[in-house]
Amino acid sequence: MKELYFTSENIEFKTDAFLETIREIHTIKKIDINLNNSALLVLDMQKYFFQPSSHAYIPSAPAVIAPIKKLIELYQQKSKPVIYTRHVNTPEDAKNMNSWWKNLILEQQQESEIIEDILITNPVVIKKTQYDAFYQTELLPCLNRQKITDIVITGVMTHLCVETTARSAFMRGFKVIITADGTASYNSTYHLSSLINLSHGFATVLKTSECVERLKKFHG
């Protein structure tokens, strides 16, 4: 089930191939995204998914660190919000997570911490208990306070928390960008299937390099 489909050496080539596959199925809608009104979401980049000894290890996840860091650097340079999520559960708040997964991510576990490679100074970290980063969290109030209209979503996993959060953001009226090389799943089938679905009615799917160019273009 698990597959190393992204590496630091092949990620650009593989992403181009994924985007070409999507374009063969349908047009990828291009939306204008304004850096002034946007936030970067970095979902669940936790040790739990990055340690090879973890049963939840995502083999392709290390390769998406560099693309995500490029976006973080841009948002920091322009003093725009970077928001991290950290998925943690208790038996009481896990709900259906209990029946789907062998173990819960407990807050007291070191593995629940966000990896240091992508953390900024004094980060905004929102704890969540479900796939949807908006579900019973402070994410929506945080975005509304800053008058955010556009969201760039990165992180793991593409087919679970990324896809669910993207759909939820769309339903709340946000413009959504997904970086195809800034997200990862257990295998390429999960990853590509989510990108195909999201790009058909919920989000614009781009390479990180193109996303950076578009953000700079519409930064007034």
Please name the CATH architecture. 3-Layer(aba) Sandwich
* Span between termini: 45 Å
Might you state the CATH topology name? Rossmann fold
**Whole-number radius of gyration?**
16 Å
Structural class: alpha/beta
Query: Would you state the CATH class?
Result: Alpha Beta
Number of strands: 6
Number of helical segments? 8
User: What is the arithmetic mean of pLDDT?
Assistant: 97
Order of helices and strands: HEHHEHEHEHEHEH
Q: What is the topology?
A:
Blueprint: H1 11-25, E1 38-43, H2 47-50, H3 65-77, E2 82-87, H4 97-100, E3 124-128, H5 139-145, E4 150-156, H6 158-171, E5 175-184, H7 188-198, E6 204-206, H8 208-217
Parallel strand pairs: 1-2, 1-4, 2-3, 4-5, 5-6
Q: In words, what does this structure look like?
A:
This protein is of the alpha/beta class. It has one domain (11-217): Rossmann fold. The chain has helices at 11-25, 47-50, 65-77, 97-100, 139-145, 158-171, 188-198, 208-217, and strands spanning 38-43, 82-87, 124-128, 150-156, 175-184, 204-206. It has a six-stranded parallel β-sheet with strand order 3-2-1-4-5-6, with helices on both faces. β4 (150-156), α6 (158-171) and β5 form a beta-alpha-beta unit. α3 runs parallel beside α8 and α6 (158-171) packs parallel to α7 (188-198). The N and C termini lie far apart (45 Å). 41% of the residues are buried.
Features:
about 220 residues, alpha/beta, Rossmann fold
What is the structure about, briefly put?
With 220 residues, this protein is of the alpha/beta class. The protein has one domain: Isochorismatase-like (Rossmann fold, 3-Layer(aba) Sandwich), CATH 3.40.50.850.
